[in-house]
Amino acid sequence: MNTSNVKKIFLLCALAASSAVLAVEGDVSDSDRIAQYREMISDGNPADFDEMNGAELWKKVAGPKQATLEKCDLGKGAGVVKGAYAELPRYFKDTQKVQDLESRLLTCMTTLQGIPEEEITAKPFSSDKRKSDISALATYVVGQSKGIKMAVSLKHPKEKEAYEIGKRVFNYRAGPYDFACSTCHATSNVRIRMQDLPNFHVKKDAQDAYSSWPAYRVSQGLTRSFQWRLNDCFRQQRFPEPKFVSEVTVALTMYLAVSANGAEYAGPGLKR
Q: Within 13 Å, how many C-alpha atoms sit on residue 34's CB side?
């Protein structure tokens, strides 16, 4: 039985169990129902399959240089994965840029393995028909920071600059609906459909939201990276889709990550 079928069977069983429990709890709110569902299947998140796949890809010889990613420096030294995500984005001397996880993985894949950047960025997000290696690698890396407190630095001038750019992007209104990130994420006690919207001006909201991504989207049957999450937000604002790991998305990630400092990273998460 392939991984896709295992995921489907797992989710069907979980949904059936959760429906049976919630059916007798008529006074439970939609938010509580979602929280209960997540809790019921939290010990068997389907993202685990992508995390395992990413672990294999990390050690797999690939690309024109026939190399693994085991010498990739994510900020804590060559090959060190444990706790790396909890300190990203950060400034890297070799690229002279502030990089988030996926932009750093892109650097490692191109320099260590010799894989052309355009080949990686052509389709960086998973779909029903095609899995994304860089997304699986990101899922593996984030899993190695579970339980570790977020501690994203603003010591370097470039890190401070990225934070300020990200803050401006978060509040920048544009597009046909005059939307900004803050349109949905700067007010408490609001939601869209059945989804509560975190207020990033509230520390706990920011911590809970950021520390649960990347995440497995039950409605899509796919593990989604944080870059995908930002791209989808831009899409919903009717903005032009940003280039994968663009300066804009990295800066926005920096702003959101710093807002979550102090929280124990809990991903990969589980979303509706």
A: 13
Annotation marks residue 184 as catalytic: no
Of 72, 181, 184, 233, which residue is the catalytic one? 233
Contacts of 86 (CB under 8 A, 6+ apart): 145, 148, 149, 150, 151, 152, 265
Query: Distance (Å, rounded) from C-alpha 185 to C-alpha 205?
Result: 9
Are residues 10 and 115 part of one domain?
A: no
The CATH number for 142's domain is 1.10.760.10
Would you write out the chain's pLDDT as a tens digit for each of its 272 residues?
Answer: 555 555 545 554 555 454 444 444 555 655 566 666 656 655 678 898 999 999 999 999 999 999 999 999 999 999 999 999 999 999 999 999 999 999 999 999 999 999 999 999 998 988 877 889 999 999 999 999 999 999 999 999 999 999 999 999 999 998 888 888 888 887 887 777 667 888 899 999 999 999 999 999 888 889 999 999 999 889 888 888 899 999 999 999 999 999 999 999 998 988 87
- Determine the structural domain holding residue 110 and report its residue range: 47-271
